[in-house]
Amino acid sequence: MDISIDFMRRIAVAAAAETLPRFRSQGAVVNKEAGSFDPVTEADREAERVIRALISAEYPDHGILGEEHGSENTSSRHVWVIDPIDGTRAFISGLPVWGTLVGLTVDGDAVAGMMSQPFTGELFYANASGSHYEGPGGPRKLATRKTTDLAEATLFTTTPALFKGEARQRYDRFETTVRLARYGTDCYAFAMVAAGSVDIVADPGLKPYDIVALIPIIEKAGGVVTTFDGGPAEKGGDIVAAATPELHAAAMAALRG
Q: What residues bind Mg(2+), as annotated (predicted)?
């Protein structure tokens, strides 16, 4: 099925009405995970609430999986996957590299998705017509870079600290093979793969709501997104996205050791 850009814009506007007024406002932060730090804010919860309401009104038979409010009707062929603020740590630090992620799976395959960054006024989305951008500079169709050599690639990861044990050693060796490595930015780095500014993103331990919306945006722009072992990314896990099939194969080989 196709999802109209008008519906994605409505989601982006509704979510922004909950997130932007709370951004850089020093609001309360709750830690969801004892012994670690997994922050959630009122903005996360309220943005997901309005997104779920829009989806339920438009597609009442569809299922929903959200980071903050759980799952409903996920036995449906059509399931929406929501991360109201991907990059909550950036959000509470006042950095505009978080985003609202909403993706649609059909029979488990990600077919449409959007990433909205309302502070910068950017919307990245993919539907049956391809992968697109709206924001500063005007609308355009997204396309990945044609990089095939690791030595010419720009690599992002949230932080190398997420790689544990031997995986960290493999990541460190991998980083030495690329031209430029940078850290942070969560969903924004994946969007930059689709936009042709970043070549590889490698992030271990992602949840479905961290990646489902981004899969069609990258794939329809010409990129590849899988787990480190080449499996489908829709269920999350250790995820690598790359601008070209050749670069993806090289990155997978390096990350597997």
A: 67, 83, 85-86, 210
Q: State the total domains in the chain.
A: 2
If asked whether residues 17 and 128 sit together in one domain, one would say yes
CA-CA distances (angstroms) from residue 177 to 182, 202, 251?
13, 14, 10
- Is 33 within any annotated ligand binding site? no
Q: Is 82 annotated as a binding residue?
A: no
Q: Tell me, what CATH number does 92's domain have?
A: 3.30.540.10
What are the pLDDT digits (tens) for 58-98? 999 999 999 999 999 999 999 999 999 999 999 999 999 99
Q: Each residue of 64-76: b (16+ CB within 10 Å) or e?
A: bbbbbbeeeeeeb
* d(C-alpha 81, C-alpha 176), whole Å: 35
Domain span at residue 251 reads 150-256
Neighbouring residues of 249: CB distance < 8 A, sequence distance ≥ 6: none
Handedness of CA 159, 213, 190, 134 (dihedral sign): negative
Same domain (yes/no): 32, 114? yes
Per the annotation, does 107 bind a ligand? no
Q: Is 85 annotated as a binding residue?
A: yes
Residue range 136-194, pLDDT digits in tens: 999 999 999 999 999 999 999 999 999 999 999 999 999 999 999 999 999 999 999 99
AA identity, residue 111: V
Specify whether 66 is located in the same domain as 109.
yes
Q: What does pTM read for this prediction?
A: 0.95
| Residue that is last in its domain, among 122, 141, 160 | 141
